[in-house]
């Protein structure tokens, strides 16, 4: 992960603390391709300027002025997260979509506190893998979900 320093117009690597593909934390600034690759699948920016990252090992947060990512996965029963979606008018509300598996049936989670805690979203669709998701009606907490080999689904969330 990189962050652009607007004052100096320089990109700075910010990977310390993120999980590598083997699940171990990245220590130091710079992962090596093929040796210590970092597992980041999606990023969202919160209203306070911090970032949330979706990884195969959970959700991580990087505060705006920090140099190290911290794990933010309390309540995630399935930590194999591949997509994040921030609510357009409430930056502390975020959806996390996991890769659904038979042993980890929960695949969609909601946080209303900027990723500090997560709660599973009840769905009649179990063990699905989300390819993408978007708000179709954010005011009504309604999303469109593209599921692997299952097509598009409209879901009303219960906040």
Give a nutshell description of this structure.
This protein is mainly beta.
Spell out the key features of this protein.
single chain; 159 residues; mainly beta; four-stranded antiparallel β-sheet; 13 strands
Average pLDDT value? 84
| Arrangement of strands in the largest sheet | 3-4-5-6
Major beta sheet summary: 4 strands, antiparallel
The assembly state of the depicted protein chains is single chain
Helix content: under 10%
Q: How many DSSP helices?
A: 0
State the order of secondary-structure elements, H for helix, E for strand. EEEEEEEEEEEEE
Q: How many strands appear in the DSSP assignment? A: 13
Return Rg in Å.
16 Å
What is the distance, rounded to the nearest whole angstrom, between the alpha carbons of the first and last residues? Answer: 31 Å
Going by helix content, strand content and strand pairing, the class is: mainly beta
List low-pLDDT spans: none
Strand content: 35-45%
Tell me the overall shape: globular
Please render the helix and strand layout as text.
Elements: E1 2-5, E2 10-13, E3 42-45, E4 51-55, E5 58-62, E6 70-71, E7 81-86, E8 94-98, E9 108-111, E10 119-120, E11 130-137, E12 142-147, E13 151-156
Antiparallel strand pairs: 1-2, 3-4, 4-5, 5-6, 7-8, 8-9, 9-10, 11-12, 12-13
Please, could you describe this protein's structure?
The structure is a single chain. By secondary structure, the chain is mostly beta strands. The chain contains no helices and 13 strands. The chain has strands at residues 2-5, 10-13, 42-45, 51-55, 58-62, 70-71, 81-86, 94-98, 108-111, 119-120, 130-137, 142-147, 151-156. It has a four-stranded antiparallel beta sheet, with no helix packed on it. Strands 7-8-9-10 form a four-stranded antiparallel beta sheet, with no helix packed on it. Strands 11-12-13 form a three-stranded antiparallel beta sheet, with no helix packed on it. Strand 4 and strand 5 form a beta hairpin.
